[in-house]
Amino acid sequence: MSRRGGRAATTTDLAKVSLERDGDRLVVGLKGTWQISAHLPGTTAIEAALDDSPAPGEIQFESAAIEGWDSSVLTFLMGVEDAAEDRSIRVDRAGLPDGVRRLVQLARTVPERGTRAEEPRKSLLARLGGLGLGAYDGARDELRFLGEASEAFGRFLRGKASYRKSDLRLLIQQAGADAIGIASLVSLLFGLILAFVGAVQLQQFGASIYVADLVGVGMVRDMAAFMTAIIVAGRSGAAYAAQIGTMKVTEEIDALRTTGISPMEFLVVPRIVALVLMMPLLTIYADFMGILGGYLVGTGLLDISPRAYIQQTTGAVNMTHFIPGVIKGTVYGLLVALAGCKQGMDAGSSASAVGDAATKAVVNGVVAIIVACGLAQVISWVFGI
Amino acid sequence: MSDAIAAAAPPTDQISVRDLTMAYGDFVVMRDLSFDVSPGEVFVIMGGSGCGKSTLMRHLLGMIEPAQGEIFYHGESFTQAPLEVRDTNLRRFGVLFQGGALWSSMTLAENISLPLEEYTELEPSDTRNVASLKLALVGLRGFEDYYPSEISGGMRKRAGLARAMALDPEILFVDEPSAGLDPISSRLLDDLILELRDSLGTTFVVVTHELASIFAIATKAIFLDTSTRTATAVGHPVELRDHSEDPAVRAFLRRGEQEHE
């Protein structure tokens, strides 16, 4: 047995551990300065010594040569005691410095060890079933929220909902006027991009002038509403989830409920109303900004005269493009507001839950917009609109 | 036990709870709670952390449905009442949440005015005056136009109390009045509770584990025991500390210190 005979089992610069077998006992000697910032001696050597045959019946400590210690020595000792406990070997702490002994005592007398119950691995079928049930619950939840929101909206229309007009005005300002800057930038650039993409192809046929049709119809019919909705999902959707989620954490929602005020009427409906009112206006504004972007490219780079460009645009765009675009914008606004408020109302009660809610609100909002946009394309194709 | 007698008699008190079992799904928080609260009492719900004190308060407010059992107000079932009746009941309650739960987008005066606007026919200027009065009662005169984020935690709690009192409720529910407060602010809040009880005759239901508070304000207390998952004692806290049959209750009311007898 090579480990017997007082040989240092583990060495570091400062902290040293020595193992000595004295009959039935294993004497662990602690030497040097123990510092948490330095290397921690491992317990492998001691475990090996404990597994020797004949196994020692007791562990004792010898710490006269210890010069300094901190929690590193405690960590080491906890490891030693765990190893001893696994092998049902007694540990005699008498040889430890007084402070160390008391701290180890304190750490070991915690009544129960916090062990997380491990989830048993489920079969594929069970997991599939779980997914299905989860989806069903989710859908039911979604429907309930929609139902409650509709009911509250009904009360709003009949003028019976309790909300603050000043809140609504502020929400309208935040959703509408405050979004003008970013909406201008994005739709102007988008019109520009659309013009460039179109120009590359159309120039090959000498049909550059049709860039005006492409940009005009493209923006007015779909892209203005789409891009605005994406911006609004990132701005207002996330804000709604965070605002309502935070109110949940601070029990403000509970305070509303116990005052007898429906949070649906007080918080959700004004937000939906604000977005549904502002989205069509933002969409119309984005229509013009997008066309302006196309105009800049057309007149600046494609040598189309301003007059021709405008004439071409007004010839191409008409109400059958304009109205569906505005309707789409309104629907997207509704979807974004619903997604934001839903996530806020469902948020858990911690700071990270609010962050999760905001993230989910944007993701769900954007997915809803894209799905709705796809559906709208199919519908208009089928009906030839 | 007195619980059994209480369960047999028809409920007539201001608040009566009969065989209430509270559960989240399959997990039972507390079972078989029965107690009565008379008008003007300061009823304290006490117990260790996570034993279901706040959950019991939420049940009393109808924010969570009981798994079993019933809650009565003035002998009428709250649990089985239709929603409109519950809403009328809610108007007779005031609630002070742990952090005050003031609506952060509104000033203190607006916070207190909202329930008034909702349920009274007061003129806007009168509403404002009532709000000022309520703020003055809790020592916040002149803070009408401050937002909740601009005042300290103790002031937020007092403002929360002012809002809870807006409609002169019959019963005021208070969740952890001392949580997050220094001993002096906490004492001031306790004094305020007693003062309001004495002057307005309001019944208080207070959730707390703060011993100093319990002995200072409680006229009756219920101890929720985590290990047995039921209430092991109902009575005056001093009585319970000295004469309860349950060692857990005595230990709780003595901070786990040895009894000197």
Briefly summarize what is shown.
The complex is a heterodimer of chains A (385) and B (261). Chain A has 385 residues and is α/β, with parallel strands linked by helices.
Structure characteristics:
heterodimer; A: 385 residues; alpha/beta; Transcription Regulator spoIIAA; 2 domains; B: 261 residues; Rossmann fold; six-stranded mixed beta sheet; four-stranded antiparallel beta sheet; 23% strand; disordered N terminus
What does this molecule look like?
The complex is a heterodimer of chains A (about 375) and B (about 260). Chain A has twelve helices and six strands. With about 375 residues, chain A is of the alpha/beta class. Chain A has two domains: about 10-110, STAS domain (Transcription Regulator spoIIAA, 2-Layer Sandwich), CATH 3.30.750.24; about 140-380, no CATH class. In chain A, strands 1, 2, 3, 4, 5 and 6 form a six-stranded mixed sheet that branches. In chain A, a hairpin with a 4-residue loop joins strand 1 and strand 2 (about 15-20). In chain A, helix 9 (about 265-300) crosses helix 10 (about 305-315) and helix 11 (about 320-345) packs antiparallel against helix 12 (about 350-380). Residues about 1-10 of chain A have low confidence and may be disordered. Helices cover about 40% and strands about 25% of the residues of chain B. Chain B contains ten helices and ten strands. Chain B has helices at about 1-10, 55-60, 85-90, 110-120, 125-135, 155-165, 185-200, 210-215, 235-245, 245-255; strands at about 15-25, 25-35, 40-45, 70-75, 75, 95, 170-175, 205, 220-225, 230-235. A six-stranded mixed sheet of chain B has the order 6-7-8-3-9-10, with helices on both faces. The longest helix of chain B has 18 residues, at about 185-200. Chain B starts with a helix and ends in an 8-residue tail after the last helix. Chains A and B meet through helix 8 of A and helix 3 and helix 4 of B.
